[in-house]
Amino acid sequence: MARIVMGIGTSHGPMLVTSPEQWASRLAFDKAVDHAWRGGSWRFEQLVAERAGQGFDRQVTPEAMAAHQARCQAALDELARLFAEARIDVAVIIGNDQMEIFDERLIPAFAVFHGEAITNYEFPPERLAQLPPGIEQSLPGYIPSGGAVYAGQPDLARAIIGRAMRDGFDVAAMKALPKPETPHAFGFVYRRIMRDRPVPSVPVLVNTFYPPNQPTVRRCYDFGKSILRGIEEWDSDARVAVFASGGLTHFVIDEEIDRLFLDAIRARDIGRVADLGEAVFQDGTSELKNWIPLAGMMADLGLEPEILDYVPCYRSEAGTGNAMGFVCWR
């Protein structure tokens, strides 16, 4: 049977693929929309008032942001090194879509790609015109110049789908992407961790962002255990890595939740995370649900997490930004 030899959890946000000088380009977004935080909905100015005195002014100086970026890049370099050393044959990547390949007409709770080719093409002009502020400049971090086509692993994908169905998970099966671009959750792994030399992979998508069919924390944890069984039942001697791409808390950073989450991973106890309530897992913070299936898998395998770094990358006095996490199981 196939053997999982590595798990990697990594953030993937635009702040990781742009310079600190460019982080302010997202402030227009921060100030324009309501943000989920602590189970409520908050405007930017409300966050500034509520979180006054927490020292965010010191976190958003050029020097502090440059130091945060340097730590993130060092952790990513280490993940890339560890991945290369592990001699992986195939990867399973758990991530989410943000209306990149799906739209309101169809958003599956869980989906598995089982095609031969994964397309990662550059955005056409009409797509670029629809992007939120500050996103276009981040695209080279997810899509190589000229685009790319990556190899899938249909046999492993079908083993995962079959096991999931037997376990009561009615997953959507995709033989081709609905749109020719790859969601950035996956493009980041191909470019930054695999260094544009990706092994064949199986993208697994979780609807973390969009009501009304977001799977719960416990459902995601159990789904990870089903993925594990599917991999182990695959008739192959391949060395497998499993990635979780996304998180940690954003667009409003909450270090207390992040540290609880990382502690729960260490303790192999998802109960403390589930007890936070589903209202916490909205907006960008919902991407913790990409990590939760991996945490379930690693708990069953008995692998210990190595937390390479945790870096809350703030960009405003409201505490907006992206908390970055980098974890490896071997």
Name some characteristics of this structure.
330 residues, Protocatechuate 4,5-dioxygenase, Chain B, alpha/beta, 20% strand, two-stranded antiparallel sheet
In whole angstroms, the N-to-C terminal distance is 18 Å
Q: Strand portion, in percent?
A: 15-25%
Strand tally, please? 12
CATH T-level topology: Protocatechuate 4,5-dioxygenase, Chain B
Structural class, from helix and strand content?
alpha/beta
Quickly count the domains.
1
H/I helix tally:
11
CATH architecture: 3-Layer(aba) Sandwich
Radius of gyration: 19 Å
The whole-number mean of residue pLDDT values reads 97
Describe the 3D structure.
There is one protein chain. This protein has 330 residues and is an alpha/beta fold. The chain has one domain: 3-Layer(aba) Sandwich (Protocatechuate 4,5-dioxygenase, Chain B). Helix content is 35%, strand content 20%. It has 11 helices and 12 strands. The chain has helices spanning 27-32, 44-50, 56-59, 62-85, 125-128, 154-166, 184-193, 217-233, 255-267, 271-274, 288-301; strands spanning 3-10, 35-37, 40-42, 90-95, 110-113, 117-120, 148-151, 172-174, 201-206, 239-245, 305-314, 321-329. The protein has an 8-stranded mixed β-sheet with strand order 8-5-9-4-10-1-12-11, with helices on both faces. Strands 2-3 form a two-stranded antiparallel sheet. β2 and β3 (40-42) form a beta hairpin. The longest helix is centred in the first third of the chain and has 24 residues, at 62-85. It is globular. Keywords: Dioxygenase, Oxidoreductase. Its EC number is 1.13.11.-.
